Amino acid sequence: MAFQDRTLTCRDCGAEFVFTSGEQEFYAQKGFEHEPTRCPQCRRARKRDRSSSSGDRTMFDAVCSQCGAATQVPFSPRPDKPVYCQDCYRAVAGRRAR
Ligand SMILES: [Zn+2]
Ligand SMILES: [Zn+2]
């Protein structure tokens, strides 16, 4: 069965994009039943969003070793490691960079 280029409309930005015969073949080989609903740009943007905000990152409650403020850190706080709130972290990291 031969595939033919098809023009689809992106559901995010409304732009038209070409679902090429090569892509259709790829989709068919992978067993994807749905055609793409977004243009390549929006697909890439969404992928970037997902990896940067990595949705289910667990945050742990911690107390800043510097100023004693309650804060949250993306790792389990350990008693032998200092934990900083965002402000102090920035100050500490800034000092280290210089
Ligand atoms: Zn789009
Ligand atoms: Zn602090």
Number of domain units: 2
Order of helices and strands: EEHHEEH
The share of residues in helices is 25-40%
Query: Pairing-aware structural class of the strands and helices?
Result: alpha+beta
Largest sheet: 2 strands, antiparallel
Bound molecules: zinc ion
Mean pLDDT over all positions: 87
Q: How many strands appear in the DSSP assignment?
A: 4
Give the end-to-end Cα distance, rounded to a whole number of Å.
64 Å
Residue windows where pLDDT falls under 50 for at least 5 positions: none
Rg over CA atoms? 23 Å
Which tags fit this structure?
two-stranded antiparallel sheet, 98 residues, elongated, alpha+beta, 3 helices, single chain, 4 strands, binds zinc ion, 37% helix
What does it look like?
With 98 residues, the protein is of the alpha+beta class. The chain has two domains: 6-53, no CATH class; 60-97, no CATH class. It has three helices and four strands, in the order ββααββα. The protein has helices spanning 21-30, 40-53, 86-97, and strands at 6-9, 16-19, 60-63, 70-73. The longest helix is centred in the middle third of the chain and has 14 residues, at 40-53. The chain is elongated and about 65 Å long. The termini are far apart. The model has no long low-confidence stretch (mean pLDDT 87). The structure holds zinc ion (2 copies). One zinc ion is lined by residues 64, 66-67, 69, 84-85, 87-88.
